[in-house]
Specification:
Length: 157
């Protein structure tokens, strides 16, 4: 149920989770349980997975079971890996986002202007909490956009 790909991935060809991860049934202590195939592959090659750790893919192929393509990491490590590879969903594509990319550019321009409104007032204008504006202002969210204009580029007609 594995297929060797030119990339070196050992792709699981059996049942897959909707997100593409291979899934299999294993018997543990006389009971059947579903397991993700890349986690089983890691354990067979390297031993138990420590509590709280994820088995991440270097190859970004969720159905890959090649232990050489896998590494242990925390959720933060996995998200960092996705971000560095350009796979992270962010901005207006993120499900909970109430703002569009263009609106954040406008907010950046307003905040960079002399005497900008306070965070709560600006939040009301855009239908979000003042804390959302604060997070944009201090770079906690939307920092990847890097749209704060330099002097001479501010135009908020």
């Amino acid at each position: 149920m594995l297929r060797l790909m030119p990339s070196g991935c050992l792709e699981w060809t059996g049942w897959r989770h909707p997100r593409g991860y291979g899934k299999m049934t294993v018997h543990v202590d006389g009971k059947q349980t579903g397991r993700l195939t890349h986690r089983v592959a890691w354990e067979l090659a390297n031993g138990p997975i420590p509590e709280g750790m994820l088995v991440c893919h270097r190859c970004d192929n969720p159905s890959c079971c090649n232990p050489d393509h896998l590494f242990l990491g925390t959720d933060v490590d996995n998200m960092r890996d996705a971000r560095e590879k350009g796979r992270a969903v962010r901005g207006e594509r993120a499900t909970p986002s109430r703002l569009k990319d263009g609106q954040v550019r406008e907010i950046h321009a307003i905040l960079a202007a002399p005497n900008p409104p306070n965070d709560c007032e600006l939040g009301r204008r855009y239908g979000v909490w003042g804390s959302t504006i604060r997070d944009i202002r201090i770079g906690r969210t939307w920092a990847w956009m890097d749209t704060f204009p330099t002097s001479g580029q501010i135009n908020i007609d």
